[in-house]
Amino acid sequence: MITAARPELDPDGVFDRRTGHEQVVFCQDKGSGLRAIIAIYSTALGPALGGTRFYPYQDEQAALTDVLRLSRAMAYKSAAAGLDLGGGKAVIIGDPARVKSESLLRAYGRFVESLAGRYLTACDIGTTERDMDVVARESRYVTGRSRAGGGAGDSSELTSFGVTQAMLAAAEHVWGVADLEGRRVGVEGVGKVGRRLVGHLVEAGASVVVCDPDRAAVAALLTKYPHVDVVSDEHALRRAEIDIYAPCALGGCVDETTASVLSAEIVCGGANNQLAAERVQKRLSDRRILYVPDYVANAGGLIQVADEIDGFQFARAKARAAGIFDTTRSILAEALARGDTPVVAADRLAERRMSEIGALRSIHLNS
After folding, report:
1. Is 194 annotated as a binding residue?
2. What is stated as this protein's family in its record (predicted)?
3. Which partner for 95 in 56, 75, 323, 326 could form a disulfide, CB atoms 3.0-4.6 Å apart?
């Protein structure tokens, strides 16, 4: 069954939170074991696009909190990236290594289809482009599919490219030149995005230090980039002598402690929701550490999957992802001019676009 979110499922209440979401739906199929939540934050600019996260949440409350937070970020990411798309997100509750199955993914696809195009899904943590191929057997509203399935393939390719563009703009802002040559970059997490980002950094002449609890991922990275340094864990990385800190794992990594010990002058990475709390912005600012809003820096993956809607062309998508440099540069300049943090400047850009372009919907078009 699929139902609108009910306040009694959450002690605070979805409505009491005043999150601004247009729609939150709970999806359950007992036969396949599917338990999912789809959150649509905004369709002001177009259908809400956002990935499906498959994760063993502690409980439904944790899943709901995550999907509400992630879907809002997707709306801002789409708006700041200049896309004619809104923002949404979905989470499937469970360990993908144990419960993921064809029947569960196809059941999920039918719920996506039931939203009639208000929500377009893609892959995220715990899901792959091959999973999206399965979901697409039940729904027309699926992006992030494999190339064999007619999609763009792994979106980490342009995510990492976009992070590099944002990094270059931040380097220009801080050091006066858009160049990473000789800079020391700490990359936390060398999964799909982090691994590709290391490649871009090495190519740009930066020295790189990484950490990841997945020893196999680190070993695979070192076979290709043997000169990359490795530290034991994220605490060692954050305390290391680095110029740029690039979080590419889970969110919430930049907390008060991290902000207090970082030697880096720039924080710019591929992870979503990097700031553990809003107040961390001020701590970074007080220490003269430039934070590039994560949804600006990592928009390349969204741009890549969004390009599938018109029939994927890599060159076109990459050209649009290259625009992350100019977007970052503009946001940082506005923040400096107004005495704001980059997050405030980025939010203002996204909100202005959602308001101004969304208002055009009031102009009636004859069908």
Report:
1. yes
2. Belongs to the Glu/Leu/Phe/Val dehydrogenases family.
3. 56
